[in-house]
Amino acid sequence: MSEYTLDDTIVAIATASGIGSISIVRVSGEKALEIALKISKKDSLKPRFATLSYLHNTNDELIDEALIIYFKAPFSFTGEDIVEFQCHGGIAIANLVVDTVLDFGARMANAGEFSKRAFLNNKIDLSKAEAISKIIEAKSSDAVKLLARQLKGELKDFVEDIREDLLFMLAYTEVSIDYAEEDLPTDIFEKINQKIENITIKLSNTLDASRRREGMLSGFKVAIIGKPNVGKSSLLNKLLNYDRAIISDIAGTTRDTIEESVKIGTHIIKIVDTAGIRENTSDVIEQIGIEKSIQAINEADIVVALFDNSKICDDEDEKILNLLNDNSDKNIIKVLNKSDLENSFDKSRIIDFIEISTKDNINLLIKKVEKILDENTQEDELTLVSKRQIKSVENCLENINLSKNPLHSGELEFFAHFITEALYEISNITRPYENDEMLDVMFGEFCLGK
Ligand SMILES: Nc1nc2c(c(=O)[nH]1)N(C=O)[C@@H](CNc1ccc(C(=O)N[C@@H](CCC(=O)O)C(=O)O)cc1)CN2
Ligand SMILES: Nc1nc2c(ncn2[C@@H]2O[C@H](COP(=O)(O)OP(=O)(O)OP(=O)(O)O)[C@@H](O)[C@H]2O)c(=O)[nH]1
Ligand SMILES: [Mg+2]
């Protein structure tokens, strides 16, 4: 994508490949109108007007009856001339239209190229481009609502505010470096200090909220753990409503982690069934399974820890309770399963648990999971939606923190250096100063036609 030029005209199918009632082929660039006039055999197309027309290929053969919309530059998604052919559905017609457009001198668009052009032509900033890319892949209505806020520019405004503050500080420190101190307003240091503290709080809060909500975009991960034979796979099957995993009364039945998606309330979650965690095993494959279980805990947003209510709490259960204590930052649900059988588990060993039976119903557990998911999605705070954005805020915050000492000791050149770095970092979210490589990586992750 680095040999990218803005002069050529690009084309791609904008709609999903498959059977649908309408397919859209989008053309962007200088030749878009000229190509559309040839295909439609019209003398002109009225901008932003849906024109019904027959479409013809380069051999003058009829290929479809379609709506054509011409967006005259600069008033289009990319800022260039755009023509949309809204043709009949199915991949064959769309491909014929694309082929014709190519024959008339356009080239195939790369992944993300429409959005990249929109960015380069100042139609959208990177936070909006990212929101567009992610909203297409969003798995839940909550995720869509969150991303729609970024389409509207919430993150952009946040970044703009911080940029403004940082620029203010830079301007005043430059002045202080150049002029004698007595010429400056006396409260300026206090003002800068106050701004630094405000930015620190704002950035930290945003990072915290974003980390909590990471699972909302990719699907929250719920890991089911416990010693062998407590009913982990039975629980997975019950949650999925079909027999996905093999269950048996032989301990060590599940040897690898199994991951499946399921909807709970309004949330799409990924459930991970793990191999039973036991203290000592000489079985190499089982040992690997156990290590994967520990990894599953690390990656999970919610850990469902199962215990067998029909057995006494033994050393292996204790080991798992200890493991949970080590992960107290996680949302943990402790569950006594097999409660349909005679209860033998010593409940004084465990606090805050629920009792269920996968042979009966697991509603209590589902409600509990749903409540945690609700709590983690109902925040109103601004949320960063990509690793890239999180990294930029982390780096910005780091430089802000580094600027505090020099500010207090009056080493203003150093202070200005860190603030400049912070400014570069935060700008990466919306419009980087110079970073072609990052742009290539980012837009390369888009789906074709975007
Ligand atoms: N048919 C169709 N539907 C679509 C898109 C599209 O490209 N085509 N979009 C593509 O992602 C999204 C809508 N986004 C768009 C964003 C800007 C403009 C546009 O024409 N902007 C002009 C005029 C603005 C105005 O009229 O207010 C501009 O910014 O100058 C069009 C679509 C979703 N739906
Ligand atoms: N009575 C009763 N039996 C259950 C319940 N849940 C599971 N079982 C039985 O317990 C045995 C083990 O179930 P699994 O789901 O395979 O257990 P697991 O934890 O996945 O076991 P491993 O994969 O070996 O770690 C099976 O015979 C199940 O039918 C329950 O709530 N009540
Ligand atoms: Mg199992």
UniProtKB/TrEMBL annotation:
Sequence ranges assigned to domain TrmE-type G in this UniProt record: 219-374
Chief location of this protein within or outside the cell: cytoplasm
InterPro entries: G_TrmE, GTP-bd, GTP-bd_TrmE_N, GTPase_MnmE, MnmE_dom2, MnmE_helical, P-loop_NTPase, Small_GTP-bd
Sample GO molecular function, one term: metal ion binding
Positions with a binding annotation for (6S)-5-formyl-5,6,7,8-tetrahydrofolate: 26, 84, 123, 450
EC number: 3.6.-.-
Biological process (GO), any one: tRNA wobble uridine modification
Keywords: Cytoplasm, GTP-binding, Hydrolase, Magnesium, Metal-binding, Nucleotide-binding, Potassium, tRNA processing
Gene Ontology cellular-component terms listed: cytosol
Residues the record lists as binding Mg(2+): 233, 254
Localization terms from the record: Cytoplasm
Group of enzyme by EC: hydrolase
Binding of GTP, residues: 229-234, 248-254, 273-276
Pfam families membership: MMR_HSR1, MnmE_helical, TrmE_N
Protein family according to the UniProt entry: Belongs to the TRAFAC class TrmE-Era-EngA-EngB-Septin-like GTPase superfamily. TrmE GTPase family.
Function: Exhibits a very high intrinsic GTPase hydrolysis rate. Involved in the addition of a carboxymethylaminomethyl (cmnm) group at the wobble position (U34) of certain tRNAs, forming tRNA-cmnm(5)s(2)U34.
Subunit comment: Homodimer. Heterotetramer of two MnmE and two MnmG subunits.
Listed name of the protein: tRNA modification GTPase MnmE
Organism this protein belongs to: Aliarcobacter vitoriensis
